[in-house]
Amino acid sequence: MQVRNLLLLLALILVAAAAEAGKNKKEKAKKDGSKCEDWRWGPCVPNSKDCGLGYREGTCKDESKKLKCKIPCNWKKKFGADCKYKFESWGGCSAQTGLKTRSGILKKALYNAQCEETVYVTKPCSSKIKSKSKAKKGKGKD
């Protein structure tokens, strides 16, 4: 009976500690943030060159904020880092252009970014012919 009471007391202490921690996080957010809920965010602007760490500015009524952000250096710059697409498989190689094409459908627009619903990308056709089986080394040489 005493063990059960001790476990119950321990559980109540843990619940109270977790509630207090959550309350502190909310208070900290209110100190750092504002009551404004209609924020408009601009694009991520890299600190140098055209990718890497940077910031985005947001405005809401008379307030403004800057958030840290990052543009991956291998990202397709024409789409913007705030537009996420689901791409189909690459199509066949066009003999006329020497390019493969595929399309992507908008999956998510971050920070209310203005994104195209469908985008198309191309890449040069591979000049190498991939073989499905690799040559096995060392077999038959004894």
UniProtKB/TrEMBL annotation:
Protein name: Midkine
PANTHER family tied to this protein: MIDKINE, PLEIOTROPHIN FAMILY MEMBER
Entry's Gene Ontology molecular function annotations: growth factor activity; heparin binding
Cellular-component GO terms for this entry: extracellular region
Chain segments annotated as coiled-coil in the UniProt record: none
Function text: Secreted protein that functions as cytokine and growth factor and mediates its signal through cell-surface proteoglycan and non-proteoglycan receptors. Regulates many processes like inflammatory response, cell proliferation, cell adhesion, cell growth, cell survival, tissue regeneration, cell differentiation and cell migration.
Organism the protein comes from: Catharus fuscescens
Signal peptide: 1-21
